[in-house]
UniProtKB/TrEMBL annotation:
EC numbers for this chain: 1.1.1.47
Pfam short name (any one): adh_short_C2
Taxonomic lineage of the native organism: Bacteria, Pseudomonadati, Myxococcota, Polyangia, Nannocystales
Name of the protein: Glucose 1-dehydrogenase
Domain Ketoreductase: 6-187
Keywords: Oxidoreductase
GO molecular function, one term: glucose 1-dehydrogenase [NAD(P)+] activity
Source species: Nannocystis pusilla
Enzyme's top EC category: oxidoreductase
Superkingdom of origin: Bacteria
Entries under InterPro entries matching the protein: KR_dom, NAD(P)-bd_dom_sf, Sc_DH/Rdtase_CS, SDR_fam
Length: 254
């Protein structure tokens, strides 16, 4: 077990990639705070599975797009499970819209969840680490779109590109405290966020044609790297993004 005795907070972990990371962390020995925004039933189901593994779990509702709720999330998780060792900033969403039609509400929603949520949840955790002279691990779930353009998704690209630099910058600023900060950039992973593409035969075929490994990824593909980055095996790794994309990012064919 690679995370034995550790405590982790994973944002947006009632479904999709976050859920898989929560379950995998528990199997690796971690106690887990499961954050959700909408469905308490789904979050409780994840927590129930974790408890069945013999680990502790707490469910905390919070909209990470609001700074007061980021603080509340970290306070409640810390109170219930004790000091957090690992934070995974996974909560994310996208809104498809041509650039000229993006509204301020779209911008605030996408940047709020993906970027502001990552920023202020990390701040709430790191403030506690620095106060208690503790070290810890931050893993940000970015996207291949921190590098790759994605027409119709200017807000998402702006948010994930900023997460790439936030990851590098915090690695530099916090490294002296023994805190590591890394990111994972998933490619096409079958979850609710891209069901419109993965379940449409034409769109799916177009996507597969751009993936050298010729399959859509699964949340488990992402969870394995998250365990590695949160474990002692990655003690000397900080400031980098790890692509989990079946080779999609650097694929080009004419
Ligand atoms: N699936 C992919 O292909 C893919 C690719 C690249 C990056 N990602 C990233 O992976 C992460 C997880 O996405 P997913 O694919 O599992 O999609 P998903 O839609 O299944 O999960 C997103 C999770 O974030 C939560 N969430 C959304 N807004 C929130 C908020 N304001 N506060 C708290 N929680 C909130 C949702 O409730 C959900 O649990 C996201 O950051 C996403 O951008 C996914």
């Amino acid at each position: 077990m690679r995370l034995k005795g550790k405590t982790a907070l994973i944002t947006g972990s009632s479904r999709g990639i976050g859920r898989e990371i929560a379950l995998r962390f528990a199997r690796e020995g971690a106690d887990v705070a499961v954050n959700y925004n909408g469905s308490v039933e789904a979050a409780e189901a994840v927590a129930g599975t974790i408890r069945a593994e013999g680990r502790r779990a707490v469910v905390v509702q919070a909209d990470v797009g609001r700074t007061d709720e980021c603080e509340k999330l970290v306070a409640e998780a810390w109170q219930a499970l004790g000091p957090i060792d690992i934070l995974v900033n996974n909560a994310g969403m996208e809104i498809r819209a041509p650039f000229v039609e993006v509204t301020e509400a779209d911008f605030d929603a996408v940047l709020g969840t993906n970027l502001k949520g990552t920023f202020f949840t990390t701040q709430a955790v790191v403030r506690r680490w620095l106060k208690g002279e503790r070290a810890g691990r931050i893993v940000n779930i970015s996207s291949v779109h921190e590098e790759l353009s994605f027409p119709g998704h200017a807000t998402y690209c702006a948010a994930k590109g900023a997460i790439r630099m936030l990851t590098r910058d915090l690695a530099a600023e916090l490294g002296g405290h023994g805190i590591t900060v890394n990111a994972i950039a998933p490619g096409a992973i079958a979850t609710d966020i891209n069901r419109d593409v993965t379940e449409d035969p034409r769109a799916r075929a177009g996507l597969l044609a751009r993936i050298p490994l010729k399959r859509i990824g699964t949340p488990a593909d992402v969870a394995g790297i998250a365990v590695l980055l949160a474990s002692d095996d990655a003690a000397y790794v900080t400031g980098s993004t790890y692509f989990v994309d079946g080779g999609m990012t650097w694929f080009h064919e004419e």
